[in-house]
Amino acid sequence: MTRPGEAAWLRRYDPQAFPPFAVTVDLAILTVRDGSLQALLVRRDEHPFRGWWALPGGHLHHGAESADAAARRELVEETGIDSTAEGLHLEQLATYSDPQRDPRIGAGLQVVSIGYVALAPGLPEPVAGTDAAEAAWWPVDALTESLAFDHARILVDAVERVRAKVEYSTVATSFLTEPFSLTELREVYRAVWGVAPDPANFRRKVLATAGFVRPAELVGSPTTVGGRPPELYRRGDAVLITPPLARPATGPAAPGP
Amino acid sequence: MTRPGEAAWLRRYDPQAFPPFAVTVDLAILTVRDGSLQALLVRRDEHPFRGWWALPGGHLHHGAESADAAARRELVEETGIDSTAEGLHLEQLATYSDPQRDPRIGAGLQVVSIGYVALAPGLPEPVAGTDAAEAAWWPVDALTESLAFDHARILVDAVERVRAKVEYSTVATSFLTEPFSLTELREVYRAVWGVAPDPANFRRKVLATAGFVRPAELVGSPTTVGGRPPELYRRGDAVLITPPLARPATGPAAPGP
DNA sequence: ACAAAAGTGTTAATAGTACACCCATGA
DNA sequence: TCATGGGTGTACTATTAACACTTTTGT
Question: Could you check: is the Cβ of residue B198 within 7 Å of any atom of nucleic acid strand C?
Fold first, then answer.
């Protein structure tokens, strides 16, 4: 494309003409462990909010990467999760830009953060990141307070996004390692929603949705302690579920007023 | 909240330690005019992309406003639309941060843009903004190319968001001025989807969804040229449609592979 | 044989689709 | 009274929710 006069204009352009913004990414990394939805938090060892629990994240590398790339990089750095690992789902959530969200506004720096949601299969104990900061899985129902910056808000938005998204998409499979049983998949829904779908109807819905799952070749090792061993499946190609899986009426995940 | 040592730390903080980012908002302002979905574009009279058609937008006022506030401000400045006007719907879409998306990266400035979607009732001819730049409504089907920056991509994302969102939410009413008939509402769906729902079933679905619309008190002026005058409605309180309105199978809006 | 977990059947209710038909109005 | 668009009825089909029931395994 030709843009007349732009090359000359660019040579005279002064990037200092704009006051400084900093751009960060923050990741709500979610998994299902022990039957509950949990988020990975790290304890900050730098100001601001030194000593507080926070979402993993960091600054964009200026001129070198997009927010997507930065999110992938942070995911690896902070958790050791390979960004191409099986089942991993990473998507942009929203951008948080309130001037008061970061105290560094007091020093003249406005920090804008691009929030991401990552879904990963249940992992063992958290791997401390390269920053050697403390890291731990926290059940999301146990906290909506006391996080650094506006991270509590970001986390709530992330959880709400996931609760809605498993209704009309197949992302729930991202929480499982292949191969998996339909009961395990149903347990994911129980953890995310706080209430489990009917086993029979759930099975029919999943199997009737082309591309939700596909049968695994070999019958799995009989790791179950007793009872009939389950048929095993792998993730399919489909992304959307139409019509959506209906969330059961009332559950402990949505306490009344 | 107490954050020990942070006040002293902040006094010594150097905001110049980070390379400069600029943060902008870009608005996909959509309306339904002449039976088609149209977007408001402005012709840029400044570098970069001088003379190109672009989405309305601009820089965040540093230290003074969030992206939401900036989007509302730009909406007023560029279009004269009051951000509290009836029916107006404004929501964040996504954030675009590829280093190459803005040529000013060549001068050392990385520009990150937060995209917004605005839905507004059909408006008369576009009001030139305070920048006196040329402005016009363009049918969205007529262009996915030749826009400044990555605005074609943002616009495509915005249209896709709206096409999906009218299925499970009541935002379609944002395209209409009150009071409106159900036929007018159905015409919105035709414009957005490219295919119209069945009139009878559409009527039943809308009226069966509590809070989608509510009856208007007075019967409207008989502006129709002939035929039975329609019953008129206003927007209701509901936001979500469960289960969703199904988009008819095949239509010109979704060409096959 | 029994317990436990997986998987299947059945039925009533609900919701959606397609299309025919009736109603109210202006010219 | 006729053309025009608004609004209703209806038969048929597909989907869902709820729950009872059968199958397969380990001990």
Answer: yes
CA-nearest residue of chain B to A92?
B94
Q: Is the CB of B248 under 7 A from strand C?
A: yes
CATH number at residue B215: 1.10.10.10
Nucleotides of strand C within 7 Å of the protein's CB atoms: 3-10, 15-20, 23-27
Classify residue A8: in a domain, yes or no. no
pTM: 0.92
Are residues A103 and B10, on separate chains, in Cβ contact within 8 Å?
yes
Identify the band that residue A222 occupies on the pLDDT scale cut at 50, 70 and 90: low
Read off the pLDDT of residues A86-119 as tens digits, 9 standing for 90 and up.
Answer: 789 999 999 999 999 999 999 999 999 999 999 9
Same domain, B29 and B134: yes
In a domain, B252, yes or no: no
Cβ within 8 Å of residue A85, ≥6 positions away: A120
- A50 with A25, same domain? yes
pLDDT in tens, A29-76: 999 999 999 999 999 988 899 999 999 999 999 999 999 999 999 998
Describe the crossing of helices A151-168 and A182-193 by its angle, rounded to 10 degrees. 140
